[in-house]
From TrEMBL:
This is DUF4219 domain-containing protein. InterPro entries: DUF4219. It comes from Manihot esculenta. Pfam families: DUF4219 (PF13961). The lineage of its organism: Eukaryota, Viridiplantae, Streptophyta, Embryophyta, Tracheophyta. Residues 16-40 form the DUF4219 domain.
C-alpha cells in the first residue's frame, strides 16, 4: 500500500500573543477537518423526527461528534491559562 505522504498537522497553540496569526492558522486547521462551520454557528444538530432511519441517526451522531471534536481541538490549541477561561463553554462557538 502506497503512503500519501500526508500527515495530519497539529493544532496551532495560542499562548496569548499573536492572536491574528493564530486565528488564521486555526481556521485553516479546522477547515482541514471540516470543523470550521461548527465553530461559526450557534445551531445544534437537527433533532430526530419520528422513526429516524439508520442513516439519519448516523448523520446526527457525526454532527454531534464534530461539535465535541472542535471544542476539544480548541482546548488543545490554547495555553492552560486560557483553557481555564473557556473550560465552562459547552460549545466551540462559545469558547
Amino acid at each position: 500500500m502506497a503512503s500519501s505522504g500526508y500527515s495530519a498537522p497539529s493544532a496551532p497553540v495560542f499562548s496569548g500573543v499573536g492572536y491574528a496569526i493564530w486565528t488564521m492558522k486555526m481556521k485553516a486547521y479546522l477547515k482541514a477537518f471540516d470543523l470550521l462551520e461548527v465553530t461559526e454557528t450557534d445551531s445544534e444538530p437537527t433533532p430526530f423526527r419520528d422513526n429516524p432511519t439508520v442513516a439519519q441517526i448516523t448523520a446526527h451522531s457525526e454532527e454531534c461528534a464534530k461539535g465535541f471534536k472542535a471544542l476539544s481541538d480548541l482546548h488543545a490549541s490554547v495555553s492552560n491559562v486560557i483553557v481555564i477561561r473557556i473550560i465552562a463553554c459547552e460549545y466551540a462557538k462559545k469558547a
